[in-house]
Design brief:
Blueprint (H helix, E strand, L loop, with lengths): L26 E6 L3 H5 L1 H9 L8 E6 L5 H8 L5 E5 L8 E4 L2 E6 L4 H9 L5 E4 L20 H8 L7 H15 L5 E4 L6 H16 L1 H10 L5 E4 L7 H11 L7 E3 L4 E5 L15 E3 L3 H25 L4 H5 L2 H15 L11 H12 L8 H5 L2 H8 L1 H9 L5 H13 L17 H7 L6 H6 L2 H10 L1 H27 L1
Parallel strand pairs: 1-2, 1-6, 2-5, 3-9, 6-7, 10-11
Antiparallel strand pairs: 3-4, 8-10
Helix pairs in contact: 4-6, 6-7, 7-8, 10-12, 10-15, 10-17, 12-21, 15-20, 16-20, 17-21
Length: 490
Amino acid sequence: MKLNEQNLQRLPAGIERPGYALERIGTGIAHIGVGGFHRAHQAAYTDALMNTGEGLDWGICGIGTRLEEKAMRDALAAQDHLFTLVELDDRPDTEVRVIGSIRDMLLVEDGSEPVVARLADPAIRIVSLTITEGGYCMDESSGQFDASLPQIQHDLATPRSPISVFGLLCAALARRRGAGIAPFTVMSCDNLPHNGDVTRKATLAFATLVDAELARWIERHVSFPNAMVDRITPMTSPAHRQALQDRHGIDDAWPVVCEPFVQWVLEDSFVNGRPAWEKVGVQFTDDVTPYEEMKIKLLNGSHLALTYLGFLRGYRYVHETMEDPLLRRYVQRYMDEDVTPQLAPVPGIDLERYKRTLIERFSNRAIADQLERVCSDGSSKFSKFSVPTINRLIADNAELDRAALVIAAWALYLRGVDENGERYRILDPRLEFCQELVAEDEGLAERLLGREDIFGPQIARSLAFRDAFERNLLRLRSLGVKGTLELLVG
């Protein structure tokens, strides 16, 4: 049965569906970057609120800035913007649910003007983002906005036809300012530290280059709340789509699959209203920092700690790495001994229970989370997910071997061949540059660790960390992953 509005009431029993009339939904959110995570997270929370009878004026209009998003737009449009969320878990009582909170999707490829006009519409009170870590146009080495990027240069030259995220935001805000329309809140849902602060910095930097007075207006009137977001959402595969059809009879062009666990901690800083997401599990706070640090260091940092070692060992799924007793012990000790002592108390969170939950989530066979996905964009991820932990270990003169092993494994992973001689693809926009850094053994540690745009100045200056890196790189080459882990965790 093709998924669309007409067939909603004909769906099999047990499939949850919108408990609200789709025609009653008003659009109050524009979301840039409609991918799997947005659909499994923000869109799912919003749909849950609508199912209580509230928030019906907070429907979502998707915005696509990349050519690849045309496929998503077309898939959603062909099924009245409905999609199926499928929870995957080793337990049998998982949810299959049709979500209706996305009501439209526009592409910049089809013209900037309709997109800017929608963002400038007074009905839009929140513009949210999932544009990946690299989408914020920040230079990793300087921490400053990179105005030299081609899309930014285009928008500076032709501000009336923007194609970049920040060009679109500033064009819409300028139009609202000129018309006396209240601004919107800009809400990042990306997985990076202080995501709201990063968004604010990038937006103001671009605005200053276009119109200094507009930048001052944005600084005074627009809010950029920080958020901690969490839900493992693998890439949807043809097998997922086929399984939905085989088990439930639903023909969905692009369902989303995810784990049952979901979390969203959000600073309550909105300038033009917001949905009552707290009624469906969102935790609002004045300061997201301790939650963010906990999640980034424990979940994302541990993901990197296991992923490159697992790939070198020949595994291709996260749960396979967790079924390896040595890798499981290694990740547990990394969490307990390297990360936990660095964390401040987190209100309402039992850290020991949180870590047990992470181990369970990583071990979820049903979700079959691809190591390739977690391995991707390592050159951007290290600075956010591993470097803060390593810097603290260096400052405390603490044990460095477990943390150094993560980077040593990445250096070997970049060679593109695992311990079984199997070749694999590597997803990283800076792949060629990174592979040049590890191409020659002579001087490898100095070249790689000296890249402050990846690892920062503290690691580059630390002789102790360089020794730990070289020691573990040598172990991996001579003993392999298994032998190295036997030395480190027994």
